[in-house]
Amino acid sequence: MGSKFINIISTLLFYISILTFIIAFNFAHNPPGGWYQQFLPSLPNFQVSDMYFLDSLNGWIVSGNSMPNDTSGYILKTTNGGDNWQLKYTDFRDFSRIKFLNFSTGFVSGGYGNGARIYKSTNGGENWFAIGIPGGGQIYFDDMSVLNEDTIRVVARNGFVGGVFRTTNGGVNWTNQASSGDFPDKIYMYNSRIGFIGFNAGTPTIKKTTDGGFNWFTVSNEGFTDIEFIDSLTGWKCWNEVDSIKKTTDGGISWEKQLIPPTGGFFAFSSIVDLAVINAITIWGVGSIATTSLGFRGLIYKSTNGGDNWGYQLPDTSIIVISRYFNIDFINELNGWAYSNIGRGVHTVLGGDTTYYPTSVTQISGTTPSDYKLFQNYPNPFNPLTKIKYELKTPGFIKLNVYNINGKEVKTIVNEKQNTGVYEADFSATEYGSSLSSGVYFYSLFAGEELVDTKKMIVLK
Fold this sequence. Notes:
The protein is mainly beta. The protein contains one helix and 37 strands. It has two domains: 313 residues, Methylamine Dehydrogenase, Chain H (7 Propeller), CATH 2.130.10; 100 residues, Sandwich (Immunoglobulin-like), CATH 2.60.40.1930.
């Protein structure tokens, strides 16, 4: 009996070891994606308008629908990072903004039809009650900024009754801080003194205050859908496809356009409509669409150098069917969420997937060089981005290839006819889904069939 028992145990252990090996093998060779899908409850006319996460577990989402007398204004809450959501409040409102100051105190704004409302919660969003509002409930609040429990600002673009309204006593009294005829639809306050309002309708304009809203002055003849600053000088804003993402280093006085992948081919539509700024170098953006074999899928853009270069992530299209993301929120480098406007989203606790950076080749000078020349890439070593500069004496067919240490071609950066001039190519070790491992590589420039030069570069991860 004892021998038979031992044999049974041995057989079980043998099969368990095989099963463990198979699981480990499959995991190693088919690792899970950095994003996984989440779902909101199925609710009538549900349209996500804003979301806010306080930490890795606690978050809130509001929805709205611009239909009068439509009970599609919802407030939802999660306590497990978005894996499950609970409906906490429903009203005849077009909720547009939600903000929590801590685990207890939060505010929601919006309204349509029978008037605007601002709701407050003092128990983490479990219950909500209305606070005093400006305008007698006859206007629509487009956006809201909450500095603390007492100081709140809302903006409304309604003619005659719109403006920038501020309360310093939690909604008991309100003051319109707008200049005559100013009816903005966006507001962002960096602190109690510095802030911006945006006018996206009519003539797009951005105005700034440095004295808490008592005075506003124009800083840009364009609008914004989202704007975030990391200090009083450095910030980013997104707006439309043409001026999708811009950066300022002088407090918003001037804005420099940053280049995301252009619309065309794989990038069915390339634009950023919402931002998540982690720090001075790491920025996320959503709003773009990719063309895949399974149809249109939402792209998530990422920059790891302050917006100078933008790569993309495409959450697993075999299981995630989301055609476009409109809202994104990150609480740190690893934990983030991106949601569509119809109740589907993705969540990461790993900082997302590998980020792929499309190659960009730019002619930086039209002067005629005295010869063909290939320059050393910079920076070198690099991860994942570097630049390669070269000069062309005459027009012709140009190839710029990358090889591994064994001489095998691993990338083609340029393969086209180019004019005389000086060019610079952005090259990524993670371009379009193929990642180069750390090591020594070589890149060669060909003019027609003639080899111009070969140089060494190092990928260091």
